[in-house]
Amino acid sequence: MSGKSVTKVWARNRRRNWMSALLASCVLVTAAAPWCSTPARAEADSVIKPNTPTSQRIPDFVSLVKQVKPAVVSITSMIRADAVEGDGGGMGGMPFPFPFPFQMMPQPSHQTIEARGSGFLISADGYVVTNNHVVKGATKVTVILDDGTTLPAKVVGRDGKTDLALLKVTTSEKLPFIELGESDDVQPGEWVIAVGNPYGLGGTVTAGIVSARGRDINEGPYDNFIQVDAPINRGNSGGPLFTQDGKVVGVNTAILSPSGGGSIGIGFAIPSDTVRNVVEQLRKTGHVVRGYLGVNAQVISPVMARALGLPAPATPGAQPIGALVASVSPGSPAEKVGLKSEDVITDFNGQKVSNPHDLAVRVASIAPGKQATIGYLRGGKAQTATVTIGDLKTASSDGSSGSNADVARGQRLGIALAPLSRDVRQQLGLSADVRGVVVSDVDPGSPADQAGIRPGDVIQAIGSQAVDSPRAVVASVKAALAAKKPVLLRVMRDNQSLFIAISPDGGNNAPPSDDGGDDDDN
Length: 522
Description:
By secondary structure, the chain is α+β, with helices and mostly antiparallel strands. It has helices spanning 3-29, 39-44, 62-68, 81-86, 132-135, 272-285, 302-307, 333-336, 356-364, 404-408, 422-428, 447-451, 470-482, and strands at residues 72-80, 103-105, 112-121, 127-130, 138-144, 150-159, 164-169, 191-196, 204-215, 225-228, 240-242, 248-255, 267-271, 291-292, 295-298, 323-328, 344-348, 351-352, 371-378, 381-388, 390-391, 415-419, 437-442, 458-462, 465-466, 487-493, 496-502.
């Protein structure tokens, strides 16, 4: 190597050494000499450094799957074609094919459709949890155990509001079962596995993480889903979602699929805390009873918050917290404890209330007759009240409770009615000139359910008689029944009118079979 080359190398090294010394001195004197700081150094103090072990690896689920898989079952339902058509195939244009992933198989007969889903055993004596939409309208339900054993199943009860159903199979042997865990303990980022019957393949295992909690996908009044990225496909409906302790924290129910196809990594499961409450009631009585408070609440906008003198959110630009009481139903539990319009409910039974949906979910989970504490703001001042929760099913359309409840539900037709308030019109996308009464609830298995009436339908006329209040509907229904005729309803659904005839004895529909029909006694 020439001297010239050596010199150049040495000069470069000397410059490097000089720079290294300067940087080293900066480390020692940065606090006293700000000129030594660099952007990287300045930003280092704000860098988030997760406390994650470097040796952490993806978990092995082999042992877990061996333990839980024997309790997961496949379900085949023979469903009336009219019950499937009544579901509309979607959610008003939303990209959720809900009820989703159950698989329909074509049949030679046009009377029934074979649907396949999943479920899981929760007791040794044969109780099985699945989705309501897997067995709704079924004339026959069959459960296939993990070992291939096929058993006829009876529908103990269904709950359309949470999309849950409880089945019962009978066998001389004790069956393997799994326990419900605590969904409130589940955290985003936690590993979960789904087991089910996608596309009729039988026990299939997929894994992923919890993506989010408390998702409201606008499917029902009590949406509170766990979002997961574990692949869920057609046939997974009703199957369990496990955490690594082998307990069920969710029931797989729906997916987001803009194309209507398979999984894109956005799935939804009903939390086990909801499942536990619903299943216990279905097991005891065959139906679900929900708490009732009697307030019409709405979301608080920033402008409303300022007008009401509410404290500013801790985070600038954040949505104000709480449920603004727009009105209180006469005779309701809320009225009895003195709640008023413009009150802002912030807590319910020790749990924060972020919005009206939170409030609805929490109230519904309390058994009628039990007491609950309500925290609220009135004129900017915090107050509390202790309320005795009412029964949603026996609350009449005007909010009162008592002997009018049975009449308000349509003389055993199985429908609950409510007036078309401003908020209801907004939710249903109805213009101010639409007249009628909205169906707020339909009893599973009732004549109205069998005829295809759905929550959200707007009854505009009974026969040729226009109706614009729940009491008018009740009066017209009574007149039709007195004449011993089916009740003919003109209904608006998705901004289109249609006629639906309801026979009080359900004689216009095929009766369920003994081994899997709808046995609700609501």
